[in-house]
Amino acid sequence: MEILYSDISPEANTTSVTAVISPPPSGPLVGLPASHVVRTWSRMSSLQADAEDVLGTLKANEYDGNQWLVILDLTKNAVEQLGSHENGLRGVPYRFQYEGTAGIIKIILGYAHEYCTAEFSTAINDQLAAMGIARNDRSWGGGTLYSTPYSNRGKEADQIFTPFNRRPSGGIIDWPSLVIETGVSESYKKLQADASWWFENSHGRVRIVILIILNKNYVRWEKWQLVPLNAPTPLTRGYLNQLRQQVPNIPPLTAQPAVAPRPYSAQEVLNTPTSVTGAPMMIPFEALYDRGRGPTETDVIITAQDFRDIANTCF
Predict the structure, then answer these.
(1) From which domain of life does this come (predicted)?
(2) Is residue 35 part of a domain?
(3) What 3-state class would DSSP assign to 112?
(4) Which pLDDT tens digit goes with each residue over 141-178?
(5) Contacts with 299 (C-beta within 8 Å, 6 or more apart), sequence order
(6) Least confident window among 20-29, 84-93, 257-266, 272-281
(7) Cα 235 to Cα 246: distance, rounded to the nearest angstrom
(8) Does residue 179 lie in a domain region?
(9) How far apart are CA 185 and CA 215, in angstroms?
(10) What are the tens digits of pLDDT across the range 253-276?
(11) Which residue range is the domain that position 124 belongs to?
């Protein structure tokens, strides 16, 4: 899959992007920081101790550094236990991903991670409620392990949005329309790879992935989506900037073959303790609901003041 990365570090204040013409390597370990911890599966108690060490180091470093544990040679029972959060990791919150016998655990670093994620989803939910959308048609979750029927892989997100027409039915779990992935700035490349995972494995059923990048000096928000099916090859900077300037900029609303999706960062917003740049962020209604809008339904607009309010829970 061709991935279109922002051509700047996550803390930079700019909105240009550049195309990576050669597809990057794929796999669950792509994008992990060099400092990630690798262990071979033995028992849950050992993994719990490793998770506590990672979280303790994050806290000691003011939430800078590595938040990832890679576990090799996982058994089927271990995958099921970690995916179900049965007994957990002695109170250390985490998100789980696996492929084959390799597992990747993202340690959730505390209130900044939880609050920024939850407050962003609340800002969306409040606007949907004001439109008169029923409670059961604006559901959020985060503990579901999404897996693919055609390969031995699965993943959890920090938050997912699922409209009523995608709710589980007859034991079948449909993909969410919007996903939120949150991490520290050292996890930026891994978060980008996570966004690609959702688009690729859902065949485009996931319409938008929001990345929240946390640093003690800033919070950066990125809205990732797929280029249109008729996008040129190769993609150019000029074409991508045209997409980013479109209002509304609606991602493709049809399923796509796994080899076709090409994600790009459609918008970035940067929060510091004293400024907000890049706002407002628009989330098209059609991307959330797979349908046209009614008389009282509009795009979701996250304003600069919304971002200030959300970021106040993070710094």
Answers:
(1) Eukaryota
(2) no
(3) helix
(4) 988 899 887 779 999 999 999 999 998 777 678 999 99
(5) 248, 282, 283, 284, 285
(6) 20-29
(7) 16
(8) yes
(9) 6
(10) 988 776 767 999 999 999 999 999
(11) 109-311
